[in-house]
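WARN retry 2 of 3 for item q-0093 after timeout on previous attempt; input resubmitted unchanged.
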Amino acid sequence: MNEADSSQQVIDFFNKEYKKYDRYWYSKSPDRYSPKISENETTLFAQFLRRLNNEKKPGFALDLGAGEGSASIKLAAIGYEVDAVEGSFVGAEKIKKFADIAGVGSSIKIINDNVYDVELKKTYDVVICNGLLHYISNKSALLDKIRHVTSVGGYNMVSLFTDENPIPEYHRATPLFRDSENGLVFNFYSAWERIHFSLTRNKLDISHLGASPHSHSMIKIIARKA
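OK item q-0093 returned
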């Protein structure tokens, strides 16, 4: 299967799933769609947002594989101008809907395109790539694109599945290209300042609807470009 075919299969899957539910991601955590950084949120992303907010240097942010827009909304709420790239047209419509409800719609440019083809014409102070890279076969090409558009001193936040756990049945509906724990993604950031690095196995996933509780192994990285 080539990249175009696998990418379209993923987009078709999320179009179908996003249509089923008002909020597919984090439906039991309404704070995830709020512009406020709630103290109730203890995720790595929430901690990262607090770090960015404390630095008080908002600029440009890129959210690749933006889903329904929860990360884009929170970045916009702390002052960033956000480009949200989402291949699913249903997801893109939801980003607009939820961003407008949160009052930050004017700060988010929604780009309904796949990450292989999207043209990025500026540099970004923050790039989010959360839960996307395990759908990407040519990770090197996308990571090089991300590196090129990240400003010096800018942050990347990346998370993806690793191959330590079996693939749950629900996720067999799309092609998956998981990385090893000491693989391409880990080594890509070796020359950057690593703010956070973690490996997890058997992590319970209850973040989305459509599937019974299941487990993943994951890599999570926050890094600053030297």
